């Protein structure tokens, strides 16, 4: 593994873990895993996050080809410093478990209009476990699609997506994708397996402060580094 790939990997991994733990999509995965088969929730959420990471890295990689690398470097520096201050502000401002309560309320609002769907889903799940369903059929199941759509649109325009674009514009895009995918896999697996009990124990304030410090470190490093022509 080359030095540029390793640097992109480590930066992306650290950024992804600190951005996704305590994020809305993290809590959504934890709550969905309590109501539906974990395998389908995990595959749906992970697929959405991997697609989002690849798309973001591609945009970041293409950006220097559309505008000068010097401009993309300066924009990336400003993004990192801005996200760092944003995260620090959120860490000092917000109380604990606000994200969890907000996501749970939204999912409950979507869940209640279906009435007895929860019991029906459980019965259907028991029946599907007895049957040997093909992998292709599982990818088109309502549970997979629900987990995918909630995660994908929840990440769209999010701070972590924009940071991935900026990181891919300044670092090796392959390393950024690899680190992002590994980080997403670690966080999503922890959310699905740990469920609400794990999610409720996470200190959003500490995660936000740690993420803010990391973004500022990346911003300072980007500011001090030279731009490759």
TrEMBL record:
Keyword Transmembrane helix: yes
Signal peptide: none
GO MF annotations in UniProt: calcium ion transmembrane transporter activity; manganese ion transmembrane transporter activity
GO cellular component: Golgi apparatus; membrane
One GO term of the biological process aspect: Golgi calcium ion transport
PANTHER family linked: TRANSMEMBRANE PROTEIN 165 (PTHR12608:SF1), TRANSMEMBRANE PROTEIN HTP-1 RELATED (PTHR12608)
Name of the protein in its database record: GDT1 family protein
């Amino acid at each position: 593994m080359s030095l540029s790939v390793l640097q992109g990997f480590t930066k992306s991994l650290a950024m992804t873990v600190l951005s996704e733990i305590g994020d809305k999509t993290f809590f959504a995965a934890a709550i969905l895993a309590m109501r539906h088969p974990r395998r389908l929730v995990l595959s749906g959420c992970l697929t959405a996050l991997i697609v989002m990471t690849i798309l973001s890295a591609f945009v970041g990689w293409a950006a220097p080809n559309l505008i000068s690398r010097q401009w993309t470097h300066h924009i990336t520096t400003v993004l990192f410093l801005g996200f760092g201050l944003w995260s620090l502000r959120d860490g000092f401002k917000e109380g604990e478990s606000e994200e969890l309560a907000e996501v749970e309320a939204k999912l409950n609002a979507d869940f209640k209009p279906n009435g007895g769907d929860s019991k029906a889903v459980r019965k259907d799940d028991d029946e599907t476990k007895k049957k040997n369903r093909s992998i292709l059929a599982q990818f088109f199941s309502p549970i997979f699609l629900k987990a995918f759509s909630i995660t994908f649109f929840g990440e769209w325009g999010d701070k972590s997506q924009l940071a991935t674009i900026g990181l891919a514009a300044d670092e090796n895009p392959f390393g950024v994708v690899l680190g992002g995918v590994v980080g997403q896999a670690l966080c999503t697996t922890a959310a699905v397996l740990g469920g609400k009990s794990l999610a409720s124990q996470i200190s959003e304030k500490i995660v936000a402060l740690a993420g803010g410090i990391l973004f500022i470190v990346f911003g300072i490093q980007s500011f001090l580094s030279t731009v490759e022509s």
